[in-house]
Amino acid sequence: MADNAKLRIGAVGDLHWPRTGAAELRRLLTQLGELSDVVLLCGDITDYGRPEEALQCVDHLSILKGIPILAVLGNHDYECGQADRVADILERNGGVRVLDGTAVEVRGVGFAGVKGFAGGFGDRLLQPWGETVIKQFVHEAAEEAIKLESALAKLTTPARVVLLHYAPIVDTVLGEAPEIIPFLGTSRLEAPINRYGVRAVFHGHAHHGTVEGRTRDGIPVYNVALPVLRRTAPAKAPVRVLQVPIPRPVELT
Question: Is the pTM above the cut of 0.90?
Answer without folding.
Answer: yes
